[in-house]
Design brief:
Length: 224
């Protein structure tokens, strides 16, 4: 086991526990998603050996290649898709993932519903909200979210477990986390996927149920 990976994982877990305590929340109420995108199988194994079982990936094809091997050795892994999803990848996404965080338009919702019916598999779904209304970023606009949740539930019969957001890098994240929390509460949505390596303690203050932490566990990413 890599002592460095184990040390980093323990540091993140300790920071989550402290943030829970400071926010007056129960210990263990926040789920850590270790974001393993761009990292190889040999980088992920030490984190698995250290006991982590919930992981996040950005791309369907990358996840399929890496996790086929890893899941044969670690059968209790829970895999989350946290990156944008194209409707033509719905089949593979449903087959590969346990949770999808990036439902953001009707076409995707319908494709996922169709594939879940075909495969006889229920995948937990989160709606991605573009809280900063950034043109280059995926997600549904905040003002359209209530109607989209209703469409997913009432017309498509989908159970929406949570909402997800990625705040703009140049803005204070707290206001975006507070907005997501507000939208969730008025729609009776239970869970919130928000907070990454730089801001997850703030997200926990605003009710995050899941935090998505990658570089603080695995180290800096090489996108070359």
């Amino acid at each position: 086991m890599s002592s460095k990976a184990n040390e980093c994982l323990n540091e993140v877990k300790a920071a989550i526990t402290l943030a829970e305590k400071e926010a007056g929340r129960a210990s263990g109420s926040v789920c850590l998603i270790a974001v393993s995108k761009t990292f190889a199988v040999e980088d992920i194994r030490p984190v698995l050996e250290a006991g982590q079982r919930v992981f996040g990936e950005n791309k369907v094809q990358e996840a399929m290649k890496k996790w086929a091997e890893l899941r044969s050795d670690y059968t209790d892994v829970e895999l989350h898709l946290i990156g944008p999803l194209q409707s033509n990848k719905a089949k593979e996404a449903i087959a590969t993932f346990d949770v999808i965080h990036s439902v953001d338009r009707e076409k995707i919702a319908r494709s996922l519903k169709s594939e879940m019916d075909k495969q006889g598999k229920q995948v937990r779904l989160y709606i991605q909200v573009n809280t900063g209304e950034e043109e280059q970023k995926a997600g549904i606009a905040p003002q359209d979210t209530d109607a989209f949740i209703q469409l997913c539930r009432d017309e498509l019969g989908l159970s929406i477990e949570g909402l997800m957001c990625i705040p703009p890098v140049n803005e204070a994240p707290g206001m975006h986390f507070a907005l997501l929390e507000k939208i969730a509460k008025r729609n009776g949505v239970e869970k919130l996927s928000m907070g990454m390596s730089a801001d997850y303690p703030i997200a926990i203050q605003h009710g995050a149920s899941h935090v998505r932490v990658g570089s603080a566990i695995f180290g800096a990413r090489d996108y070359s």
